[in-house]
């Protein structure tokens, strides 16, 4: 691997992290971890109490990287087909056609994943491991690059279901967002006086940049010792 490839990947990571930091205040280590999750082709479980900016964190990453973004709001009545998609009968040609679900995107935010039932949670397993969905025996590839960010509320909240170990194993990183300090809260308020900063956030990277960085990271040598 050329040294310049790794330098380019580092530059991409720094640009994305700096862009997210325009919205997410005082969480530099967490921002760095999120970017590493993207560039290492992993998935991220974002935890913390309500109101600390978990959803905004994911939206900031989506805006920073100019790729297809979808959001799935989990509820107790969400069905697996609402995630993966389903075959729908079209009367015009008297045939069934696959209608993709929101999981068929580059960056997917699964908001409050532990509010979905265990049956629906299982729909994410194949997507996260094999980057595809199988509907009625037919496999459909999810476009690359692919990153799933799931937010999780504390388990003692009403209406939540625990995540099984097989699902937790699909996440490469677990990032916890704690309550901001008084100074950080003041900074958040100041940044939003004239409007929310995410509305002005512009992309600083694209799909080709992300895939190039992912390829560079895969070439890093790790010694057995």
Would you write up a description of this structure?
With 225 residues, the chain is an alpha/beta fold. Helix content is 37%, strand content 20%. The chain has a 5-stranded parallel β-sheet, covered by helices on one side. The chain has a two-stranded antiparallel sheet with strand order 3-4. Strands 6-7 form a two-stranded antiparallel ribbon. Helix 1 (3-20) packs across helix 3. The chain starts with a helix and ends in a 7-residue tail after the last helix.
Strand content: 15-25%
Largest sheet: 5 strands, parallel
Query: What is the string of helix and strand elements?
Result: HHEHEHEEEHHEEEHEHH
How far apart, in Å, are the first and last alpha carbons? 20 Å
The total count of helices amounts to 9
Shape: globular
Query: How confident is the prediction overall: mean pLDDT?
Result: 90
Report strand order across the widest sheet: 2-5-8-1-9
Low-confidence region ranges: none
Proportion in helices: 25-40%
Strand-pairing-aware structural class:
alpha/beta
Total DSSP E strands: 9
Rg to the nearest angstrom?
19 Å
């Amino acid at each position: 691997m050329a040294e310049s490839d790794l330098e380019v990947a580092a530059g991409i990571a720094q640009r994305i992290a700096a862009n997210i930091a325009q919205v997410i205040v005082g969480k530099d280590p967490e921002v760095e971890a999120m970017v590493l999750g993207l560039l290492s082709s992993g998935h991220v479980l974002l935890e913390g109490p309500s109101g600390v900016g978990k959803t905004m964190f994911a939206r900031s990453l989506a805006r920073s990287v100019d790729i297809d973004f979808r959001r799935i709001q989990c509820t107790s009545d969400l069905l697996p087909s609402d995630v993966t998609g389903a075959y729908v009968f079209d009367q015009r040609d008297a045939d069934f056609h696959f209608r993709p679900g929101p999981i068929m995107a580059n960056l997917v935010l699964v908001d409050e994943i532990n509010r979905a039932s265990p049956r629906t949670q299982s729909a994410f397993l194949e997507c996260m491991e094999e980057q595809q969905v199988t509907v009625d025996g037919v496999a459909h590839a999810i476009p690359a690059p692919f990153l799933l960010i799931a937010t999780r509320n504390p388990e003692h909240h009403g209406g939540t279901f625990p995540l099984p170990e097989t699902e937790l194993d699909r996440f490469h990183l677990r990032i916890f967002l704690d309550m901001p300090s008084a100074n950080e809260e003041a900074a958040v308020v100041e940044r939003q006086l004239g409007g929310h900063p995410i509305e002005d956030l512009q992309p600083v990277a694209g799909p080709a940049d992300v895939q190039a960085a992912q390829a560079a990271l895969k070439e890093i040598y790790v010694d057995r010792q």
